[in-house]
Design brief:
This protein is mainly alpha-helical. It is 52% helix and 2% strand.
């Protein structure tokens, strides 16, 4: 009985130390967010103005500024004027995780880039549309697995651990 107790105690300490080590590993973009950024729902908008990736602005849509004509508030749930595709520099199709992470952090404009990035990733209605709604004039498209709850958890963990791009 004593040897069984010792074995359990040793296992507990070994498992406990392994769990602590794993829990202290910093969250990296490649671990938490890269796959979600590569989801077709995200790429659909982020490729929109990309000539290189035959974005919708070059095949089925006329301009990124006429979006509200079809993507109405009734369909998207967004106020008029909110629906707009990102510029061509934000097409990350085929980028490696590190390059995509650096692109995302670098392209938030002037001011506090970290705050702007957090604001966009956690509070932008267009991002939440992609995560949860997915409704378009042509019907509902698959949204990002895990929805906004999982997304927010992963974004917060990445931000709290220093927004590492490794």
């Amino acid at each position: 009985m004593k040897s069984l107790f010792r074995l359990l105690l040793i296992g507990f300490f070994l498992f406990g130390s392994l769990a602590t080590t794993a829990a202290t590993e910093p969250v990296k973009f490649s671990d938490a967010l890269y796959k979600k950024f590569q989801h077709p729902r995200c790429l659909q908008c982020h490729q929109f103005n990309s000539r290189a990736n035959n974005g919708r602005a070059y095949n089925s849509h006329r301009a990124r500024y006429l979006c509200d004509n079809c993507h109405t508030s009734r369909i998207t749930g967004l106020p008029r004027g909110e629906w707009m595709a990102p510029n061509e520099q934000m097409d990350w199709t085929g980028m490696a995780a590190n390059d995509l992470c650096l692109l995302v952090k670098r392209n938030m404009g002037s001011g506090d880039a970290n705050s702007k990035l957090i604001e966009h990733l956690l509070h932008d209605a267009r991002v939440h549309w992609a995560l949860d709604n997915g409704m378009t004039p042509n019907g509902k498209f698959p949204s990002v697995p895990g929805g906004s709850e999982e997304w927010a958890r992963d974004v917060r963990a990445w931000v709290e651990d220093g927004m590492l791009c490794e």
